[in-house]
Amino acid sequence: MSLKPQPVSVFGAPTDVGAGRRGASMGPEALRVAGLVEALVRRGVDAVDRGDVAGPRNPWQKPVDGYRHLDEVVAWNRAVMALASAELEAGRMPVMLGGDHCLAVGSIAAVARHCRATGKRLRVLWLDAHADFNTSAITPSGNVHGMPVACLCGLGPDALVHLGGPGPAISPSEVRQIGIRSVDAQEKRLVREHGLDIYDMRYIDEVGMKQVMEEALAGLDANTHLHVSFDVDVLDPAIAPGTGTRVPGGLDYREAQLMMEMIADAGGADSLDLVEVNPALDKRNRTARLAVDLVESLFGKSTLMRD
Ligand SMILES: NC(=[NH2+])NCCC[C@H](N)C(=O)O
Ligand SMILES: [Mn+2]
Ligand SMILES: [Mn+2]
């Protein structure tokens, strides 16, 4: 399958309301400074920057009933969902620059609704060190960026679970998680109960990224919408230090490249989240620059000679 020649709309959601450390709010600007839009245009993609969606400031409070800043998280996700929905309806691929990972509730709710309206199947690739499958009852932090997958699957507060309409946005069977290496004890139980398909670092070590991606991409067809939710903490902190919840033992450069190249080979993504870049923790914007490099590969940049 070759890359779909779809137009792209990039937009920012500059907030860290779902995170436990400040600074992911500066992610969109860091990715722009690293040349994301220009890189896509250079690849021949019709990419435009729609600017940022707006939302409440981060009040920086303690969790209440297991959630930190739930009202603010809901407000930001509504804004993300509205813009992502509009772009999908206009036939454009939404690329959401976070911001922390709680914002994937809004982007994926939009995508799921779009799939229902157009009769498409959905596959979500969740590239992350974390499963992000906590609930208010079991979260160790109250940070909603540790809960988006659970919320999308129907476990969470009504305002997030029903963001895109009645009922859960997705089913666990539509998700493939890659690069996982930090799951809280009770979260692990929940993940098992719901049968999430997880390609953890141990499995990647054992079988290699090639086989992992073949499995994670198996069963895609022309009628499948592929959403990629790229949390930069899936990368090893040695190459991507600019993120708030670093976990050692992540993907190295070649593994990450191969992952992106194989997604491109499978036809590319139909929507993308690029989240958890935290410039306050970065060195000379290298995490944003690496993310741009990898997104270029996702859009078909290849150094292949033997093709
Ligand atoms: N999107 C992220 N970086 N999530 C980190 C989550 C960390 C931890 N599991 C928590 O729930 O607090
Ligand atoms: Mn995440
Ligand atoms: Mn993460």
TrEMBL record:
Q: What InterPro entries does this protein map onto?
A: Arginase, Ureohydrolase, Ureohydrolase_dom_sf, Ureohydrolase_Mn_BS
A Gene Ontology CC term for this entry?
cytoplasm
| Protein name as annotated | Arginase
To which protein family does this belong?
Belongs to the arginase family.
Please list the GO biological process terms of this entry. arginine metabolic process; urea cycle
* Metabolic or biological pathway: Nitrogen metabolism; urea cycle; L-ornithine and urea from L-arginine: step 1/1
Gene3D superfamilies linked to this entry: Ureohydrolase domain
Species of origin reads Luteimonas granuli
Look up the signal peptide feature and give its range.
Answer: none
Quote the gene name from the UniProt entry.
rocF
**Which residue spans traverse the membrane?**
none
For this protein, the record's NCBIfam families field holds: rocF_arginase
Chain segments carrying region Disordered:
1-23
Under Enzyme Commission nomenclature, its number is 3.5.3.1
Pfam families, per this entry? Arginase (PF00491)
Q: Name one GO molecular function term.
A: manganese ion binding
